[in-house]
Amino acid sequence: MIIGLDVGGTHTDVVLLGSPGLLNAVKVHTDAANLFDTVLKGLDAVMKGIDPSEIERIVLSTTLTTNAVIQSKVPEVGLIVSGGPGIDPEFFRIGSHYYPVSGSIDHRGREVDPIQADEILRISKKMRQEGILNVGVVSKFSVRNPAHELEIFSLMKGSFDSVFLGHRVSGGLSFPRRIATTYLNAAVYPLHRDFFSAVEKSLRQKGLNVPIRILKADGGNMSFGASIDFPMQTILSGPAASIMGAIAFAPRDSETLVLDVGGTTTDMAVLINGAPLVNPVGINVGPYQTLVRSLETHSIGMGGDSEVRVENGEIRIGPERKGPAMAYDGPVPTPTDALFVLGKNTGGDREKSARGFEPIAGALGMSVEGAAKKVFDLASGTILLAAGEMIRRINAKPVYTVHEMLEGHQVRPGTVLVLGGPAVQFAECFREISDFEVSVVPRWAVANAIGAGLARTTSEVVLFADTERGMAVSPGENYRENISRNFSKKDAVELACSLLREKALKRGANPDYLEMEVVEDLEFNMVRNFSTTGKNIRVKVQVKPGLIRGHQTMLANLAATEQGGVHHVKG
Amino acid sequence: MLKAKYKTGLVFFPAFDWAIDPTHPEREERLLYTQDQVFEEGLFDVDGILEFKPDLVNLKDVQRVHFCIPDVWSVTTESHLISAGGAKTIGMAVLDKKVERGFALVRPPGHHAMRVVHGARGFCNINIEAIMIEFLRRVYPVNRVAVVDTDCHHGDGTQDIYWHDPDTLFISLHQDGRTLYPGTGFTREQGGPNAFGTTVNIPLPPYTGDEGFLRVIENIVLPILEDFKPDLIVNSAGQDNHFSDPLTNMNFSAQGYGKLTEMLKPDIAVLEGGYSIEGALPYMNVGIILAMAGIDYSKVREPDYTPERTRQKPGITAYIDELCPQVLDNWRKKESLGRDLCRGKEFIERRRTIFYDTDNIMEEQHETIRVCTRCGGALRIDTRSSARGRVLAVNIPRKACDSCKETGYRWYEEGARDTFGSVLLQDRPRDTYLAKKKTGAD
Ligand SMILES: [Zn+2]
Ligand SMILES: [Zn+2]
After folding, report:
1. How far is it, in rounded angstroms, from Cα A267 to Cα A295?
2. Which residues contact A179 (CB under 8 A, 6 or more apart)?
3. CA distance to partner chain B, nearest, from residue A413 (Å)
4. Fewer CB within 10 Å: C terminus or N terminus of chain B?
5. Active-site annotation holder among B80, B112, B153, B154
6. pLDDT tens-digit series, residues A205-226
């Protein structure tokens, strides 16, 4: 049996899955101040009456690190950055323990200026005196040659609780993002470590001994053990959980738009033949631009609980949520109230919704029902317009070869999958106002938790080979090897795949179903003085996000069974 | 967070799968390290720096500028259309006010491509700046344009295209033509009779350093720009003046290029040459982008930079100090000198031989311009090359007067198809391109 848990802003969804399909689903209130209790309450509730030894897999998606970063509830971090020539690293300063130091490495990974050991030792001592426990070390082009980061690390070894090195966080180029990502890793490290150790410990006490897995922003997971060195990868996994939940029900042979309509926001993503698009650069968290791999998602401030009002004769919806719908005693009318007015929702007080819509109808000079219809159409239309804009942006991404320019694939989804609270009603409206083939994700209310439970372990490897210098490096994997002049792109891809396999297994992947793919393989002849002196090869491979294999019956049953059966756990 | 003072657009198109041939300087690898540096510096993340995906230019865009012989498809590849499209995309972004300034970091380059194209010369097939400018003039309220070509080689293609255009100021700074390809660009080359003086050549001695370049900008380029009052300043931003460039002999640096950009304030910059692909381009391009965006570039420095490498001999400084007043004097006298040239003449002719080094083609041209005080003048070009045969090409300029329109059409009608393989007409006021071709039956 599999447990999937997704902590959301207001609710935490937990599911128990087995070959008959969805065995149990619960919703508990999210206590942002005590996520540990929330998670355990959810797990306890979903496992009621189950023998813990039957649980083979447990995947958690939490808002722990996201909240800490956005609310700036993280300890101070020391940062040592070695930039060399270029933009002044002062521009990328984070916090008051930020130290630009000497040393420079160029784009091919060659040392230009060395590190000054006494400078590092002096800073290290100062940070220790100031009580800094967690440190980030970042040098420009460390993903081409990590020597300076490693040298600084060895000078500081043993002096701090944790030292995060920039070349380990991602193989991607971007010194400013590397600084931010390394900083965030160091900043959330203690919180992440303590939280998941505590969860693991209390699960052990209940007799549950499988290693817990944590969902990542790229829609994959990694084991808690592996996440200790990369806690940032688990940030902002919420949107990914829902998208992965939709994948189980997406067509395998077409392009699909996924719309997760929540209370405050609608998250959207694109699936191509059942696989989600991955953002090539990295996710933004609060004010930070990072190198953390994520799904290509877009979010707008439009949901079932968005505030509806009339300004200068025009209907305005969102982006704020002032509370629940008026039907549930909320303060302002919302699209959900529009559904009550139209008789498309049950369970709340239609009268209150109608009263809320009276001033809106008055301002627009139409009936309450007319105003409700107009509001709901506008909410649906706004979501589809935003989705169209996201697709336009995806297609407008620059490419750097003539081939891609001419043959480049243009995304054109024909189907839409809707999930989230008001999924059924929105789907109906999308169907009316667009040409999309629209369907509702089965189990739409807990699809996020299902997605978390079924997401496979993902990872990525970047390899850089330079036959003129006779070396291949994959700093993220601590790999550096001398290579011969005949080393080819094929060799590079093979090498990268073997490093990827090793990494994925370490993170907890199933060795029988490793779906590896080459994301990038570029090879350039290096020509100096009109003769070829070597090859410059860049390879990026990944285990692409998707669902775990070997659970076909469960998936079939999930799609077949009826909606409902979610327990709300009070308290 | 880093924020641009001037909202700046970038088109980056390194054409990673295109080369003239595998070991040619114009090859796949050329912008690879520039890409690495630009990515690693995080420039595309800077608030106020926007990356645009280039559009391809179309047939009409090319034919507005060039007579391609025998046709556009025979003398271009897709990469040329994308490179020109990159410039066009940036031009549109600037004129649509999506950004204040723009830089097209594209290849292949274009400034050696002339009005008539029989093939590639100086690694160039079509003139990407001219295609952009003429498109912008067609669509936006742009009339007067200044092109400042800071590539180390004389921008002889752009010069040729704007030779007769009084509304386009072409200024080229380059290594003296006696010491470098294409061997032209002397101060006496000042434009055709109807546009005399709006071509300004500033040949610089080998080993000119930062000081010399910046002095020329300050003392010649800026005063002339001030006087000309262009609607748009375009910089053909070649980077082969760098002290480490393998094809040239100058002593310019990334800091110098940043400073030049800061002084020139181009609305649009378009990459041209530059073949020190590891030691110079990554740093110069970062410097230019930062300078365009109004961000501090003072720490951008090449790894092998030393002040000595950009220092110039006193003799060079003295030479430049003598050159500056001479060029300015030419500029001030241009109207009267132009009138002298035209006096008593209805047509003025010139004959030239043009060599296409990249494609090894020899072209013979016989050019006739109608002397006109009201427009750029109808232009007739009788051209033949070993590779492409003989063609008659007629240009009726953008703001042609009725007499020049009439002359242009008369030349076109008179062009006998038994003499010329084809007879071509660019009618710019109507924005059309006509062709009479020899058919088998004739
Ligand atoms: Zn050049
Ligand atoms: Zn005229």
Report:
1. 11
2. A79, A81, A89, A92, A94, A136, A138, A166
3. 21
4. C
5. B112
6. 999 999 899 999 999 999 999 9
Fold of B3-334: Arginase; Chain A (3.40.800)
pLDDT tens digit sequence for A101-121: 999 999 999 999 999 999 999
Least Cα distance to B288 among B64, B14, B105, B52 occurs for B105
B164 tagged catalytic:
no
Chain A's closest residue to B25, CA to CA, is: A530
B39: which chain A residues are within 8 Å (Cβ-Cβ)? Answer: 173-174
Q: What residues contact residue B231 under an 8 Å CB cut-off, 6+ apart? A: B141, B142, B143, B144, B145
Please give the DSSP secondary-structure letter assigned to residue A172. Answer: -
Q: What is the ipTM of this complex?
A: 0.93
Chain A to chain B Cβ contacts (< 8 Å): 117
pLDDT tens digit sequence for B327-383: 999 999 999 999 999 999 999 999 999 999 989 999 999 999 999 999 999 999 999
CB contact under 8 A, A86 and B41: yes
Is the CB of A524 less than 8 angstroms away from the CB of B29?
A: yes
Each domain of chain A, given as residue ranges in start order, spans 2-70+193-236+551-569, 78-188, 460-543
The verdict on domain A78-188 having CATH code 1.20.120 is no
Architecture of domain A2-70+193-236+551-569 in this structure:
2-Layer Sandwich (3.30)
Q: Ligand 1 centre and the CA of B246: distance in Å?
A: 11
Place of tokens 């779906």: A515
Ligand nearest to the CA of B376: 2
User: What are the C-alpha distances in Å from B431 to residues A99, B135, B139, B355?
Assistant: 60, 10, 11, 29
Neighboring chain A residues of B53 at a CB cutoff of 8 Å:
396-399
| CA of B166, nearest ligand number | 2
Residue B68, beta-bridge partner list = B117
Interface-testing mutation among A82, A92, A105, A106, with chain B (most B C-beta atoms within 10 A): A106
B203 close to B186: Cβ distance less than 8 angstroms: yes
Nearest Cα residue in chain A from B29: A524
